[in-house]
Amino acid sequence: MRAWLVESPRPVAEDPLVRSELPTPVPGPGEVRLRVLACGVCHTDVHVAEGDLPLRAGPVVPGHQIVGEVEARGPGVSRPRPGEVVGVTWLGGTCGVCDHCDEGRENLCADATFTGWDRHGGYAEWAVARADVTASLPSGLPPREAAPLLCAGVIGYRSVRLTGLRPGQRLGLVGFGASAHLVLQMARHWGCEVTVFTRGEHHRRQALALGAVRAEGIEDGDPAECHAIVTFAPAGELVPASLRHLRRGGTLAINAVHLTDIPSFPYERIFGERAVRSVSHVTRADAREFLELAAVASIRAEVRTYAFEHANEALRDVKAAAIAGQAVLEVAG
Ligand SMILES: [Zn+2]
Ligand SMILES: [Zn+2]
Question: Is residue 226 located within the same domain as residue 172?
Answer without folding.
Answer: yes
